[in-house]
Fold this protein.
Amino acid sequence: MHGPLVKAEYVSHYPVFEIRFHYRDGAKVVSGQRTGKFDIHFLSLGYVGEGPRYAKAFLDAAGCNRTATEIDQIRPGEVVVPADSKVGRIVDATSPSSVVDNRQPNVSSLGTVFTGLQTDLAVSPGERALALLMRANDGQARVALISLRDNKEVWAKKLASYAAFNETADEIERYSGIAFISADRLIAFGNTENGSAILLLDVRDGSLLSKLTVPETVYRYDRDPLWADARRGIALMSGRGQLLVSMAGDNLSIVRCKPTHLATYNCMMAFGSDSSIYAQKNSSYYRYDNESQTFNKIADGNNDICAHEDGSIICGGGFDDGSGDSYLSVYDPVSNRAERIAFADCVFDVRSAGPGRVLVCYGHGRSSDRDIALVSIASRERHWKKNIRRAQYRGAIICAVPSERWALIQGDDSLMAISLDDSRTLWKRSRKSGEFINGIWVASYRRVYLNRSWGEDDKKGAIDCLEVG
């Protein structure tokens, strides 16, 4: 009616909360106490509560681009004008992101590798073998090594042969894990009646080389198989604080990192190309200092974390109820600086998507549609976005494969591969209602291994293998 908003003038604080909105044609609209005519006084600024949330949505639509934190800090006398935020925002790209690869991959099933509940999909350095810590559907837990050449079992041992582990579905899913801590050594752990046991195993035959016991329950984050770094012979898991386990020869040692509040299964982690260790918990993410054995906060970020191939650390931000700021946080270890890129909705998942680019999943609420978008970090451009119907609440992006220019996404009733060039669907597979999938790409054999789990109290699972031609 009046054209674009020119400025929003904040006049007074509680109890009036008067704001004057100035439009291009000279019109002014005053938001203040209820008058019976205009009931827009809820657009209050300058404090923490519901009012700033409504004001943020209004100002976003007007192009003012203030974050929730900036709106909370507004004081009488300030004037808000379009595009004056100190925080960068995503804009849609005006040119194609790249030359589009129109080839349609040929995908075929190689069948089920294992039937039962599986914790991690641990691939060896050099991609020769897959290590599993699993609970068969008959209730028996095992550790096994699978040859990636033919998907055949090389060896398998009962988990109980190493220690008196608890083997319920919940214990195996949440409180156990397996990973390669070097090319020829495996690290595994599980919950016992008196705490947890951490094992060092020989890859050749599964023989036990070393065992540590700790008096607490140990976790690893349930969506991240990368809790061990085979390049450095270390692993990071949560106990009473973060536990940094190191391999020296055929022995294990443990460091109890500070602060202790970085604990429980929802602490995520990443190993940077700068040889640093990163952890994310609650509303912040941290970098480990070897000398002080302490994780120090580097930036805000409360959803997912990944080490980008260009060396930066990426973290999502926001809350599913829409409160607070929603953003992508990008930390540069070289400059020791983090920058925020503001989003309209909570950023749930982040994955490296090639040089300078990141794949993000963002949205609102726990059970709703999500948008998947390809974003350039430097230019803050969104090259495309794709709506996914009732995407997985957390973990909608199973994996991104920049070298192949596609990513795997799990939606309401399907698993789909989408093109990183233009978001088109390349191929689909069915997904059961309530099923959770994580997966890995094994480049040397051009295969996708999918770890599928479903059910409530006594979960079932399977590992399926797809070959991509």
In short: The chain has three domains: 5-86, 91-115+301-469, 121-299. The chain is about 5% helix and 50% strand.
